[in-house]
Amino acid sequence: MKKYSHLLTYIITILITLSNNIQAKENFFYHGYNYGSEAIVNPIRLILNGGYGIMQMDNRDNDPTNVHYKTGVKNVWRNLSNPFKAIDQEGWEEFLMTQVVPISINRHKAYYWPNYTQHLVGGGMSYRMMIEWFDYYNFRFPKVRAFFTLTYYHLLNEVVENSNYEGYNTDPIADIYIFNPLGMILFSNDAIARFFSHTLNMRDWSYQISYDPENRLIENNGQNFVMKYFFTKKKNIALFYHYGTHGEFGLSFKRPDGTCWSFGGGFVAKKLVDMSTRNDVRELTADLVPTAGIFYDKNNSLLTSLIYSNTQDYLLRLNIYPGLVNFWKLSPGFYMTLNQEKKPSFGINFVFLPIGFGRVL
User: Looking at the DSSP assignment, which residues form a beta bridge with residue 247?
Assistant: First the structure.
């Protein structure tokens, strides 16, 4: 029973903390729009986009059947059930300085950056968005459902990232025990949720994840977030930040009808590099390459984006979300990508399906 105590304590504490901590009925991150990126928000897409997000990397196979799930589950459980032993193997100072305390300027050691941006802020916003989604569609116990949706998503993410690795790894400890619960508690506060929603215009701009049944590949996957801070008196020009396994900074230009053009550039994670100096402790960092994009949204719901990235599979990635192109009574979403060999892939998404269908040529 001692091995299970950390996980049981984690689940019970979070459920008790969150049970009465959301006061208002205002929706901050989900409004039921039938267009754009918000139209395809649902728990299954969130789990798949986030859980398999690492498959965007050049050195990761995007065939989900090739993931070593059994080994991944076993090793993630090994570290989560013995967190102090895993941290002892790495060293407490190394763990705190690289995973928790945001002071290292060495990008190969700044593991805290995705912990804060994707797990604390992104995970917290996703949790609140799922509460609003379940509540909007009249599901019972929306907070409990949102909690288990996010927990499953993050555990799947750790399992897929771990795959066939066997050994100590403190990354899931920082994510599951520190940043994920803090994010959920943070965004359970209406004032904080309102700040990120109204002041920073934070939203989920995830890709239209699709499955190619012939080649058994997950395509066009990845959870993305956007923030826009309007700094002019007319609230028509904003600082723009779009991020996931990448980060593009730039400017947004809003029109009176609520539509907005955004332009940004930055860096994207091309592949994961093992920086381990010891055989029994794993340390991964990202190899970064340039990226840039153009984005068009309405009421902060992304309608289309064109992104250039100097990566193997996604040299160019075009996403056209539902609501922009109409065929009779249907308004599907589309995507097309081009890899470094100029070979395309394409796919189609419908708002009533939990995942789209793609084809890699």
Answer: 243, 267
CA distances 64 to 70, 159, 211, 212, 242, Å, are: 13, 12, 10, 11, 26
**Helix H or strand E encompassing 5:** helix 5-19
Determine how many CB atoms are found less than 10 A away from the CB of residue 352: 9
Of 266, 265, 252, 335, which Cα lies nearest the Cα of 298? 252
Q: What is the per-residue pLDDT across 90-121, written as a single tens digit (0 to 9) for each?
A: 788 878 887 787 766 655 566 777 888 889 99
Phi, psi of 34 (to 5 degrees): -100, 20
193 three-class SS: helix
> Taking the model in full, what pTM does it have?
0.89
Are the C-beta atoms of 97 and 104 separated by less than 8 Å? Answer: yes
Would you state the torsion angle of the CA atoms of residues 220, 43, 63, 333, taken in this order, to the nearest 10 degrees?
A: -30
Whether 204 contacts 118, CB under 8 Å:
no
- DSSP 8-state code for residue 327: B
